[in-house]
Prior knowledge:
The complex is a heterotrimer. By secondary structure, chain A is α+β, with helices and mostly antiparallel strands. Chain A has 3 domains: 84 residues, Helix Hairpins, CATH 1.10.287; 133 residues, Immunoglobulin-like (Sandwich); 112 residues, Cytochrome Bc1 Complex, Chain D, domain 2. Chain A has a 5-stranded mixed sheet with strand order 3-2-1-5-8. Chain A has a 3-stranded mixed sheet with strand order 4-10-9. In chain A, strands 6-7 form a two-stranded antiparallel sheet. By secondary structure, chain B is mostly helical. In chain B, helix 4 packs antiparallel against helix 7 and helix 5 runs antiparallel to helix 6. Chain B is globular. Chain C has 2 domains: 233 residues, Up-down Bundle (Cytochrome C Oxidase, Chain A), CATH 1.20.210; 241 residues, Cytochrome C Oxidase, Chain A. Chain C is globular, with a radius of gyration of 23 Å. The N terminus of chain C is likely disordered. Chains in contact: A-B, A-C, B-C. Chains A and C meet through helix 1, helix 2, helix 3, strand 7 and strand 8 of A and helix 4, helix 11, helix 12, helix 13 and helix 14 of C. The site of protoporphyrin IX containing FE has 25 residues of chain C, from helix 12, helix 13, helix 14 and helix 15.
Amino acid sequence: MNKKAIFFLSTILGATFAQNGNAAYELNLRAPHSEIAHQIYDLHMLIVYVCLAIMVVVFGVMFYSIYKHRKSVGHEASQFHEHHLLEVVWTIIPAVILIAMAVPATKTILAMKDTSAADMTVKVTGLQWKWEYDYIGKDVKFISNLATTQDQIHGKSEKGENYLLEVDNPMVVPVGKKVRVLLTANDVIHSWSMPSFGVKQDAIPGFIKETWFRADAPGTYRGQCSELCGQAHGFMPIVVEAVSEEKYAAWIETKKAEAAAGAAGSDKEWTKEDLIANGKTVYEKNCAVCHQANGAGLPPAFPAMTGSKVALGAMWGADGKYLKDSHVDRLLNGKGVMPAWKAQLNDVEIASVITYERQALGNAATVDPIVQPSQIKAAR
Amino acid sequence: MSQSTKSYFLPGPSFWPLIASISLFLLAGGFSMSLNKIAMGTPLMVAGGIALAYLLFGWFKEVIEESVSKHYNKQVDKSFRWGMGFFIFSEVMFFFGFFGALFYARNVSLPWLADAHGLTGAHAVWQNFSAAWPTAGPSLKLEGAMKPWGLPAINTLLLLTSGVTLTWAHWGLMKNKRNQIIIGLALTIALGAAFMYLQYTEYAEAAFTIKSGIYGATFYMLTGFHGLHVTMGTIMLAIILFRVLKGHFDSHDHFGFEAVAWYWHFVDVVWLFLFIFVYWL
Amino acid sequence: MSSTTTTHDAHGHDDHGHPTGLMRWVKSTNHKDIGTMYLWFSFTMFLFAGALAMGIRAELFQPGLQFIKPEVFNQLTTLHGLIMIFGAIMPAFVGFANWQVPLMIGAPDMAFPRLNNMSFWLLIPAAILLLASFFVPGGAAAGGWTMYPPLSVQGGMSVDMSIFALHILGVSSIVGSINIITTIFNMRAPGMTLMKMPMFVWTWLITAYLLIAAMPVLAGALTMLITDRHFGTHFFNAAGGGDPVLFQHVFWFFGHPEVYIMILPAFGILSTIIPTFARKPLFGYASMVYATAAIAVLSFVVWAHHMFTTGMPVAGQLFFMYSTMLISVPTGVKVFNWLATMWKGSMTFETPMLFSVAVVFLFTIGGFSGLVCAILPVDIQLQDTYYVVAHFHYVLFSGAAMSIMGGVYYWIPKWTGHMYDETLGKWHFWLTTIAFNVTFFPMHFTGLAGMPRRIPDYSQQFAEFNMISSLGAFALGLSQLLFLYVVIKCIRGGAKATNQVWDGAQGLEWTVASPAPFHTFETPPQVK
Lengths: 380, 281, 528
Ligand code: HEM
Ligand SMILES: [Cu+2]
Ligand SMILES: [Cu+2]
């Protein structure tokens, strides 16, 4: 029996490891790319080796005993059942080993907690189910969404190399600079995790928690939300791009220009078709997780868009202000689980997605059929 | 008969456990429904409540009958003592959880929300929030927190006195002084009722509700559960008084009385903590 | 000996005057019948929660979404956890306590037989609430077994049902524990001093303490959750001055003792089985008792090691790291004691012993991964990844569940009067052990590499290990049907068991007939 089991196990393990053609999987912590991550890596190796050594000694004894002290080999049981010295020794030795491990661990903890003297600060907000990055003092603020397509997820097209680990708007930071990250959340708890930097910090609604990292090499680093936050918890990755300082400066400028272009769109008159086309993108990125790409929703938690009273009803009152509980109100201010979008989407995006919801997804609203970005701008 | 007290009393088959199970099922199922606006919920809860009342009366009646007909020996008596002691310990832990929440809120989360360590400064989620207790938190307003030295102080006195009168009644029981027992118990019940009345007045006059942020939540949760326990305790005392009148106890054999007395003292002690940490500090 | 309810004692018959059929069980006041009901309940829940796990592993067999929608996936993981912990493992241990504690200490029954039956019958409404919650609008609770707000505040009616189910289970556990403690303190046979009690009784005594101290705190946390959900309180909502993390503190103040509640009785079972098959007394009985007590005390001051990533102040982080590291010392002492018990014994390896040896080995792996998680900086990388899933399945499946299986094989001859089928038992053991490791060992690797837990879909680099895990899981699930078969076969027949059953077994339970008669130790035995 025993031999068979070992054989079976080793075949399975052997088969796994022999399969080196696909080198994607890993057996250990990800390659560290910050000082803290390095320390963690070393700490982990230290503990693993200590544990392995103890295992070998202790279970060496056990298997020796199992082999030698069997009735079937005629071993007689001796009847000892106490040995005070031994008992003291095997209490003290582990305690000493533990103290030895606690010392370097304590040092790393103190370093991890030291957020002082940061070169820059980014406020990161977790939302169901995406991340918002706000570069403090730089006027750069954007949302980062999963970029993997639904088709890939549902097996309708080939999965890419970074399946589920890619976003439309990565966080970009300069290499070698101490980045202080302030974390909070809008709705439920999320957790911002970046294994290569040795960072994982829960984002707690209503509270600000902080952490920091310093990327030691340029590259693209990937992590995932690490606290259950609802149905799309598995679909809100984190991507950090560490680049040279010049590239970083250039990137900041591009982001600013993008934001300006977005704001400019608010004052322009849009056609229905443009609004719908633009709205489709916005909808699929932000709304489809809950209300579904076809607008069917997931009642009762997430209402259907198709045929929705809100999406077909009037939006503006006689005074020119939006009505309470109207489509505009719901988008700007949210309700219950439905988030408030006014801080996350710009005027064009909100106007487009409202128009899309009213004119597509099986809807054709006749009252207030479309809405212009300028109206949203005024309504804020 | 006398022999039966030698061996440990083992009750015969009983329906009560099943009724307990059914009543809690109705209560829990009904409550889940009514919380979620399903009309069936309330009738189910009422049915569960009736079943629970029936259970408590029926089961305790059976136990009292067994006790009165001397089925219980010293060892059974001791079991009851252990049982009651650990039951009260579990109650202590229940309150411990809520007190823990209060301490945590006051000493950890509120300072954090107010950015007391200057961690986030201008980026704090809540600007201009100070953690001074009492508070309803950064986005709610608290009206009229409780003052300790009015009703609450009187209530403290009432409960402390009730502990004394109950002990006095117990002395009466030990010395078989019937009048002392009855007067002592009746006084204790009266003091308990007075406490509840004052507590009710306090609630009725309070300007804040359970929705008033963390202060309202901890205040009503702690005092509410305590009030519930006082109510239970008073009812239990009344039953004990009734049993005294029926002559169920003698100076050796009165664990029912003692169990309720333990419970009452426990409720007393919880109040002291409430007075200090909820009303005063 | 002649009151209404003790008449049958005088006759010395087993089931004279007792209802038969369904009423025997419904109205039972017999610790053995109640123990049997507990064990069957637990087994049923084990299979059900196992079936949920099969659903989880089917979805995770390969990347992409295949069978199960993400929100349903979360319901599966949530209910798998809740039902395994509160429906399978805890009731199984209470079942053992019911059967064995009175037999081991020479008591005629539990101290409060009617309350004992109530503790069992309360499990049924709780189970119905949990199972029915799949069918209410919005489906079952999906916020994880830990039910962290605000996510659990978002959930629908099923969250309320789960909360009330846990309240009821809490009542059941508290009443059951009071019963067990009272039985142990007050019903021991003359001469059975505390330090002569079998180790299993000791571990249950301490477990019962933990339960009475921890369950009410869970009740408090759940009550605050209910009022936050429906009555406008702000315990866990910053807008009103509350804090979502407060829930985690209260929950884990219950939760960490809870994990020891699930392992201490298992330690007791091991400490019973290993001496029997080593034919040698338990090594270091006294230090075993002290180690168990130390674990119980320490288990109340380590809770925030589940919250290392919440961003506690550094003093808190250090304190909880040190205390957690400390708790592995008494845990180690236990393992050493078992090895010393085996050392120079005269061992045989029947199924119970196979399970016990495997548990010692595999539980220690779980203990080591626990230690790795205790090192805070390392845990930052591991928190909420599959590494934690590997850790707690090594301690809970190969620690608790496999001890339960070993215990069933060990005592089932006493319960049924028949020997189980040794060949099939060994098959069950090997299949379980191998499949278990195939399922859970790879999770250490996926966890280290950063695969988050509680996700229905994962990136490509995790594909191989997940496929292996899923294959192992299916085998593990199927193997338990073999267990069911072995148990049923043993109940229905098999070689007649002697009273002693195992030649090395010590203790009062082996002095009574097999199967143990309906009433035992009506006249207390004298213990020397
Ligand atoms: C040497 C002893 C142990 C140590 C040092 C230890 C340490 C830890 C730590 C630090 C965590 C948190 C990991 C994380 O979430 O990042 C954890 C999780 C856990 N441990 Fe242990 N542990 C030990 C033994 C046990 C035992 C005996 C059990 C149960 C029988 C257990 C059950 C669990 C469970 C269920 C979780 C995960 C809970 C969850 O997040 O769902 N552990 N352990
Ligand atoms: Cu998440
Ligand atoms: Cu723990």
